[in-house]
Amino acid sequence: MADAASPENVPGSQVSPDGPVPEGGGGGGDGSPRPDPRRWWALAVIALAQLVVMLDMTVVNIALPSAQRDLGMTDGNRQWAITAYTLAFGGLLLVGGRAGDLFGRRRAFIVGLTGFAAASALGGAATGPGMLFAARALQGVFAALLAPAALSLMTTTFTDPRDRGKAFGVFGAVAGAGSAVGMLVGGSLTEYLDWRWCLYVNVPVAALAVLGAVVMLKEPGRESGSRLDVLGAVLGSAGVLSVVYGFSEAESRDWDDPRVLALLVGGVAILGIFSLWQTRARTPLLPLHIVKDRQRAGAYLTMGLVTIAMFGVFLFLTYYLQGIKGWSPLKTGVAYLPMTACMIIGSTQISARLLRRAPARALIVPGLALGVGGLAFLASMDADSTYLGRVLPGICLTGLGMGTTFMAAIATATGRVAPHEQGAASATLNTMQQVGGSVGTALLNAIAAGATTDWLTSHRIVPVERTPQVEAALAEATVHGYSVATWTSAGIMLLAAVIAGVLVNAKAPGRQADAAADRTGADREAGVLDAPVSAG
C-alpha cells in the first residue's frame, strides 16, 4: 500500500515511529516536546471515559434477560438493545472523529460525556422496548463523539515514547478488560438493585469524568480553515448503517431475502461512492492516506475481525452460564474476573513492556493465536461442562491473548499520524470495532440459531412437548448452536492473525528510533569532520 501521502511527507509535521512530533520541537533539552506535567491525571480521566463506553457495550448483556422479561421484549427483537447502540456508534464515528478535529477534541469529549449520561438516564427510565432501544441509539450517537476524542486526546497528550508506551498499556487494558468488567458490574447491579441501574450507573461516573476533563485536559488545538464534509458524512454513515442493518436482518430472515440483499449490496455500493468522493472532497471526512498506510490498514482489519469474533462470544457465554447452568447475574459477572486479570496482564505486563523492542506483529500474531486456543476450549463445551474444566481455561487464554493484541494494534493504528488527523484515525479504528460488534452479534446469532434448528430437526425433537427429555435435548441443541458459532469465531480470529502477519510488518519502534538517532549522529560527525578549520 502506498505511503506517499502519509504524515511523514506532510509539511509542518515531523513524525516519529511512536507518533507525531510538532514542528519545532518543544521545551525538552533534546528538542522533543515538553511533557505535560498533568498528563497522568489526564490519562485517568480519559481512561475513565473509555471505561464508561466499554462497560456499556457489555453491561447490557448481563441485564438483557431481566430487561426482556420486564419490558416484554421478544427473542427476535431483544438484540436491538445491543444493536441499536452499536449501529449508531459505528455509523457516526467518522463524523464524530472529524468533528473533534474541527471543533476541538476537549469540547467533543465533554459534550459526548454529557450527552451519554443523559441518554443513559433515559434508558434507565424506559417503559417499553421502543424507549429502551431509542435511548441506546442515543447513547451510541454521543459515544461516537466521545470515543475518538478520548483516543485522540491520549495520543496528543503523550508524545514521549516511553510515556506513550505506558499510556497505551493502560488504555489497552481498559479497552480489553472493560467488556469483562461490564459483566461483573452488570451482574452486581442486576442482582442487588435492578437492571435499570446498569444504565443509571453511567450518570455519576460520567459526571466525575466531565469534572476531571474541565480541570485536567488541555485543548490540543483544532484544524482551522476547514469545514465538515457534509456529503461525505451522509454517505459514510448511510453505508455503514446499511451494511450493519443488513447483517442484523439476516438473523430473522434468510440470507437470500430481498431486504437483506438490498441492504448489504446497497451499503457496499454507498461506501464505494463514499470512497470515490473522499478522493475529490476539499476537506475529506476520512483522508484516504490514513487507511492506505499498510501498518494502519492491517491494524484496522485485525481489530475489526477480532471484535466480530469476540462480541458474539460474550453474549453466548453469558446465556450459557445463566440459561444452561442457571447461574445468577452476579455469579456470571464474577466468572469473568479471571479474564479481566489476564487482559490486564497481557496489555500492561507483556505488550507495553515489549512494544518498543519487538515488532507489533510479534505481539499481535501470538496474542491472536492464544485467543484462538481459548475459543477452541469454549467451543468444545457441552451442557455438562464444568467452569474449571472448560470455561476458565478458555477465558484465561482468550483474555491474555486479547490484552496482548489490543495494546499493540491500537498503538499501530494511531501511530505516525499528523496531529490534525488524529480524530479521523481514531474514529476509523473505533468504527471497525463497533461495526465488528454489530456484525458479530448478528452474524454469530444467525449461525447459532441455524445450528440449533438443524440439530433439533436432525434429532426429530418437537419443542412443543415440554417433557424432561425434550428439555434436556433443547439444552443440548442450544449449546451445540453456541459451539458452532464459537468455532466460527475461532476461524475469524485465525484469519485476523494471518492478516496481521502479512500486513503489519514494521520494525520495532525502538529500533527505528535508534537507527534514526545513529543516522543523525553520523550526519553531525560528518559535518564536524567536513567543516573548514579556522586559521586562528
UniProtKB/TrEMBL annotation:
<feature type="transmembrane region" description="Helical">
    <location>
        <begin position="333"/>
        <end position="355"/>
    </location>
</feature>
<feature type="transmembrane region" description="Helical">
    <location>
        <begin position="40"/>
        <end position="64"/>
    </location>
</feature>
<feature type="transmembrane region" description="Helical">
    <location>
        <begin position="260"/>
        <end position="277"/>
    </location>
</feature>
<dbReference type="InterPro" id="IPR020846">
    <property type="entry name" value="MFS_dom"/>
</dbReference>
<feature type="transmembrane region" description="Helical">
    <location>
        <begin position="133"/>
        <end position="155"/>
    </location>
</feature>
<keyword id="KW-1133">Transmembrane helix</keyword>
<feature type="compositionally biased region" description="Basic and acidic residues">
    <location>
        <begin position="516"/>
        <end position="527"/>
    </location>
</feature>
<dbReference type="InterPro" id="IPR036259">
    <property type="entry name" value="MFS_trans_sf"/>
</dbReference>
<feature type="transmembrane region" description="Helical">
    <location>
        <begin position="79"/>
        <end position="96"/>
    </location>
</feature>
<keyword id="KW-0472">Membrane</keyword>
<keyword id="KW-0813">Transport</keyword>
<feature type="transmembrane region" description="Helical">
    <location>
        <begin position="484"/>
        <end position="504"/>
    </location>
</feature>
<feature type="transmembrane region" description="Helical">
    <location>
        <begin position="298"/>
        <end position="321"/>
    </location>
</feature>
<feature type="compositionally biased region" description="Gly residues">
    <location>
        <begin position="22"/>
        <end position="31"/>
    </location>
</feature>
<keyword id="KW-1003">Cell membrane</keyword>
<feature type="region of interest" description="Disordered">
    <location>
        <begin position="1"/>
        <end position="34"/>
    </location>
</feature>
<dbReference type="GO" id="GO:0005886">
    <property type="term" value="C:plasma membrane"/>
</dbReference>
<keyword id="KW-0812">Transmembrane</keyword>
<feature type="transmembrane region" description="Helical">
    <location>
        <begin position="167"/>
        <end position="187"/>
    </location>
</feature>
<feature type="region of interest" description="Disordered">
    <location>
        <begin position="515"/>
        <end position="536"/>
    </location>
</feature>
<protein>
    <submittedName>
        <fullName>MFS transporter</fullName>
    </submittedName>
</protein>
<dbReference type="InterPro" id="IPR004638">
    <property type="entry name" value="EmrB-like"/>
</dbReference>
<dbReference type="InterPro" id="IPR011701">
    <property type="entry name" value="MFS"/>
</dbReference>
<feature type="transmembrane region" description="Helical">
    <location>
        <begin position="108"/>
        <end position="127"/>
    </location>
</feature>
<feature type="transmembrane region" description="Helical">
    <location>
        <begin position="229"/>
        <end position="248"/>
    </location>
</feature>
<feature type="domain" description="Major facilitator superfamily (MFS) profile">
    <location>
        <begin position="42"/>
        <end position="508"/>
    </location>
</feature>
<feature type="transmembrane region" description="Helical">
    <location>
        <begin position="199"/>
        <end position="217"/>
    </location>
</feature>
<feature type="transmembrane region" description="Helical">
    <location>
        <begin position="362"/>
        <end position="381"/>
    </location>
</feature>
<dbReference type="GO" id="GO:0022857">
    <property type="term" value="F:transmembrane transporter activity"/>
</dbReference>
<dbReference type="Pfam" id="PF07690">
    <property type="entry name" value="MFS_1"/>
</dbReference>
